[in-house]
Amino acid sequence: MMKQLLVAFAVCVAALTPAWAQPLVLDGITEPFHDVTLGLAEPGIIRNQFFQEGDVVKKGEVILELDTRLEELEVGRRKEVMAQDKEVMDSTESLYGSTHSVSKQDLTKSEAEYNVAAADYAIAVQQLANRRLTSPFSGQITEILLHPGAACAPYQPLVRLVDTSRCYFVGQIDGAAAARPKLDQAVAIQMADGQSVSGKISFISPVVDAASGLASIKAIFENPSGKIRPGMAAKMTLP
Predict the structure, then answer these.
(1) What is the DSSP string of 177-231?
(2) Sign for the pseudo-dihedral over CA of 228, 58, 125, 65
(3) Which residues contact 183 (CB under 8 A, 6 or more apart)?
(4) pLDDT at 3
(5) 3-class secondary structure, 15
(6) Measured between alpha carbons, how far is 139 from 48 in angstroms, rounded to an integer?
(7) Which of 88, 31, 40, 85 has the alpha carbon at shortest distance from 63?
(8) Which helix (H) or strand (E) holds 111?
(9) CB under 8 Å to 134, separation ≥6 — which residues?
(10) CA-to-CA distance for 172 and 25, rounded, in angstroms?
(11) What percentage of residues in the chain have a pLDDT greater than 90?
(12) Structural domains of the chain, with CATH
């Protein structure tokens, strides 16, 4: 009898508690912190592949490389031209400063020729770099779409890279309650498989969708071990 009275009392208290004071539970899904498909601005034949699907790469590491033989030769040629122009400029500066056997005009010309050669060398180096697909952040390769020997067009998707060391909970909140959560507010997130993590609000849409009356909301949470796989359904609890 006493247990029934306690249950009835708890129900009455919950009914009397205002909605704004009750925990708010939102449904949503999890997404990786970064999820991008990479390509190259240059066309060509893929020559080298340095990683496989599932591999972890660090920021700046080369994943794929096109045929670069012509670009490597051009870099070498431009480097030699720049070195020769540097010697001429240094020699002209020395003569101008010690004996004045060359004119100011000759000195200016040698400096200009060196600067042009240095710019041409920098362009050649960049053109070579443009034929190497490098990782823009540390993450894991989930898909490689073309392999060595295949031809690729400019900006054609080649590699999908994700960063799951941090993830987002992405959900919708009723527009009338959108003022309740605050940025950086701590929240509890529970996955469909039972795992629970702590996170914090990172985004609240300032606009409510007119059709649904809902606003987008995001919370970020750490996932260094990779135990949580992005794409899972989840629930977020606002205290």
Answers:
(1) GTTSS-TT-EEEEEETTS-EEEEEEEEE-SS--TTT-EEEEEEEEE-TT--SPTT
(2) negative
(3) 201, 202, 203, 204
(4) 46
(5) helix
(6) 20
(7) 40
(8) helix 104-129
(9) 60, 61, 62, 63
(10) 10
(11) 82
(12) 18-33+164-238 (2.40.30.170), 37-65+134-160 (2.40.50.100), 69-129 (1.10.287)
Report the mean per-residue pLDDT for the chain: 91
First to last CA, the chain: 32
Q: Any idea which residue has 């060398």 for tokens?
A: 121
pLDDT digits (tens, 9 = 90+) for 77-104: 999 999 999 999 999 999 988 887 888 9
pLDDT by residue (tens digit) across 201-214? 999 999 999 999 99
CB atoms within 10 A of CB 228: 21
Q: Angle CA(216)–CA(222)–CA(225) in degrees, nearest 5?
A: 135
Which amino acid does the sequence have at 32?
P
Task: Check if the beta carbon of residue 189 is closer than 8 Å to that of residue 196.
Answer: yes
Cβ contacts of 135 within 8 Å, gap of 6 or more: 38, 57, 58, 59, 60, 61, 63, 161
Q: Which of 186, 203, 194, 195 is nearest to 237 (CA)?
A: 186
Q: Do 195 and 228 contact (CB within 8 A), yes or no?
A: yes
- Give residue 18's pLDDT band: very low, low, confident or very high (50, 70, 90): low
